[in-house]
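Task: sequence design from structure.
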């Protein structure tokens, strides 16, 4: 069974950092492009970052470029999102996604507030 499980969300002050993790199960992780999305209240889900299967190619939403970094460990079937210089506008539920398997994680809440 294909499954993605996110962790690492929480409440952080503006300017702070968080690292999200996503554990993958039930598929050959190292052969799939992985993505992070987010959805803020009242807004559509949006792509935050994407990384190719071997990690050689990445792409980011303009709003997070220079602040967020996607990475992966294919030996551990894990993908990460390091978020620095967080802003209140980054508040959202963050989701891990493998498009080729049409699978989403359950999401993890990130709240940026003083």
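Answer:
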């Amino acid at each position: 069974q294909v499954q993605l499980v996110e962790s690492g969300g929480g409440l952080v002050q503006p300017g702070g950092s968080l690292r999200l993790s996503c554990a993958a199960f039930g598929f050959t992780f190292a052969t799939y492009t992985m993505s992070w999305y987010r959805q803020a209240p009242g807004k559509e889900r949006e792509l935050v970052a994407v990384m190719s299967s071997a990690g050689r190619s990445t792409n980011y939403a303009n709003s997070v470029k220079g602040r967020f970094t996607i990475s992966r460990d294919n030996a551990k079937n894990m993908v990460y999102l390091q978020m620095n210089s967080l802003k209140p506008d980054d508040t959202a539920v963050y989701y891990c996604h493998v498009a080729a398997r049409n699978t989403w994680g359950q999401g993890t809440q990130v709240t940026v507030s003083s």
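The CA atoms of residues 2 and 28 lie 10 Å apart.
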